[in-house]
Structures are given as C-alpha cells and as structure tokens.
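User: Can you write out an input/output pair for a complex, sequences first and structure second?

Assistant: Here is one pair. Inputs:
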Amino acid sequence: MNTLTDQSQAVLARGVRLRADPLTGEPLLLFPEGVLPLDATTHDILLRCTGAMTLSGLLLALSEEYEAEPEVLRADVVQCLTQLRQEMLVVW
Amino acid sequence: MNYRPYLLLAELTYRCPLHCPYCSNPARYPDGRELTTAEWQRVFREAAELGVLHAGLSGGEPLQRADLPELVATARQAGLYTNLITSAAGLNEARLGQLKAAGLDNIQISFQADQESSANRIAGAAMHRVKLAAARMVRAAGFPLTVNVVLHRDNIDRLEEIIALAEELEAERLELANVQFYGWAFRNRAALLPTRGQIAAAIPVAARARQRLLGRMHIIFVTPDYYSDRPKPCMDGWGRRFLTVNPAGEVLPCPTAKEIKELRFDNVRDHGLGWIWNESAAFRRFRGTEWMPLPCRECEFREVDFGGCRCQAALLAGDAGVTDPACALSPYRARLTEFVQAAQSPEAPDFAYRQNP
C-alpha cells in the first residue's frame, strides 16, 4: 500500500461521500453497499480530506482545533487514514 | 424496539438479456405489470423518509428501463446513495452521461468468468466483450467501479485470473460472491455447488490477493454457507435493515423471500412503504427473536446470526420457521450434508438457463 507521508494529500475515494444522518444528524460516511457512522475525530479528519491539504497541514489544522501538538496527534491520524484506505474510502 | 431500514434494493425489472443459471430471481415470476416511473419515484421518496440511506438499482437488468436516469435523479435528490447493479448490457456513452448528470454514485458490473468463451457460456449470451468495453467506459467517465463475480463450480478454479481481470479494469472493489441457492440457483444447485477441494483452494487465493491489493482494490469474499457449520446472518436479520421492492411492487424483507410460500407480501400500490415496513404481517413474521424455535431460541448466537436464512429453511426443511439447515445444530442439517456429499462427484448436470418473464 502507498505509504502516507507528510506531503500526501488525502481525499475521499471516488464514490465515497459524507452526509448527516437524516434521522439523527450524526455524521456518516457512505460508500458502495456500506455506511460508517463517524466519531467526532474521524469526521474532523475527513472534512479536511479534500485533496488540497497535505498530512502536515491536516495535523496543523487539527492541532489548532484540539489545542494539542501536531506530533501528539500524528499516530492516531495516520492510523485512521490507513484503515480507511484499506477499504478504499480514502486515497492519496 | 424500533426498526429502521438502511438499504432499499429496487428490482426495476425482471427483463434481462443474460440467462445466468445462478440468478437469484424467482424461477416463477410474480404476476403484475412493472411499477411506473411515478410509482418508483414515490418508493424512493418514502424510503428516504423512513431513514433508508442506500438504493441499489437492480433487476433483472435495470438498464432495460428507459427511465433509469430519471429514477436515479429522484433517488439522489431524496438523499439516497445510488448504486447501479448491472450486467452492463445496454450501457453506452450516452447513457453513462445521463446517469452521471442524474448523480449516480457507483456502478457495479457483473462478470461471469475471466475468459470470453467460458463467460459467454455461463451467461447464456455473448456478453463478455460488451462488459469489458463497458467497464472501461465507466472508468473513463469517472465513475467508481465495483466488479462482482458469482463463484461456482464452473469458474472458481480460475479465481486468480478473475482477480487479475478486476485489477486490470482498475475496480475499486471486487465482490467474490460464492453462489447462494435461491431462485434459479436453487434449481441449478447440483451444477453450481463447488466441491470441498475447490473451496479450500480458493480461500487462500482470495486472502493473498486481498493482502497484496490492500489500498488499491478492496476484495470482499463471501464464504459459502453450505460448507460452514454456522449459518449466515441473513440480511442482518429479517425486517431489520433491508427491504426489497420487486418489479411488480411487492415489498420483501429480502430479494428471495418469494421462496416462502406461506407469506403474502404487500404491494406499494396498496400501502405506503412505512406501513409495510412497520406493520405488515410479512415483515413482522420473523422479526426479532420471538418467533424462534429451538435450538435458536436458547442459542447464544441468536442475536448474531438471527437463526440464519428463512428462505433456506423453507427450501431445505420445508418450513421457513425453523433453524436454517446450514447450522450444524439444525435438526434438518442432514439434508444439506447429503446434498453436499453428492456434489463431491466430478459429474455435474447441465445448466437450466434463466428464462425471461
């Protein structure tokens, strides 16, 4: 699998989209034959997966939002994106 | 407990130019004309109101419906994720353009085999080249692509080559669906059931490919319940997450529920989808765990596999209300075992090809 680097620009894969649950308002990720309810952190990450932001930029943006050092967030963000990539929900 | 449907399978028509012997369409089609454009549009809107998130547009061959782009647009406007489940017969650039404009989210194309002669023989129609061209058009038009291959006795030995085909077509997803025995497939089950050896050889091929292609193509391999000790959690439970509307407007808890002769299915021409989902007798019949007989009722897996598949119980045990015979604890398990034993012979009957209504 392609390694995620600081310069990688993650984007939702083709055919994958974010939407709010029409009944509960909770954030969901929709893809062929599937739906993934999103926790707040994953949602925050995916909102920034527009293909325009590098991993470094993403970590910086999240660090401002969460008031935490980017390097503290790195492991979780990389693990989250890697798992999503394995199911072809995010690419870079 | 409140139940909410997440996925609507819209079987737009039973018409199809292919004749695959493993088709899950009923071997006896229901009477009644196909739903009109306006009737389907109402179905999609009512489904969205119920909380449905996904619409699978299937058939038969959904491209046989001239109003397909209109239906996709309505489903999409109602917020539904739209997936076209197609043989690719009738797909051309003009139609792809219309579907793109309508907002179609994903296209799933079925392949019968990796080699043309074998694929055409299984489909009962010379379609393989058309499918290859269509899959490339789908990619060129910027759609995501799922390749679906039903695996059976006649093609499972070439799993490696089948995976290579999907890879060459640059599919995001590959569904390797071991044949399940309903409708036409049940009629053809002696011709379709792979041997134990074939299954044992296929499993590691799929697992290795899945690992090798991680992050490039997502492989889904559905293991066959005839070779398992545990039943599949069919539809994630009866009337729990899924509903199917068939071409004549009947609403079913699963696409093959017509196998259960004791049930009468209400029609969207007579009732709203919400009433049928919540109140109709067919949807309530096997919902939850109240209906369960022994051994299911006291089984620790009753909320995991929901007693397996009701249609399979009807087909193999003659009673939709008993434990799925695919479960090793079923009193009817011997019927399945006997059949599986007989299928280990190298001889298999010819296909009875699917006929159109």
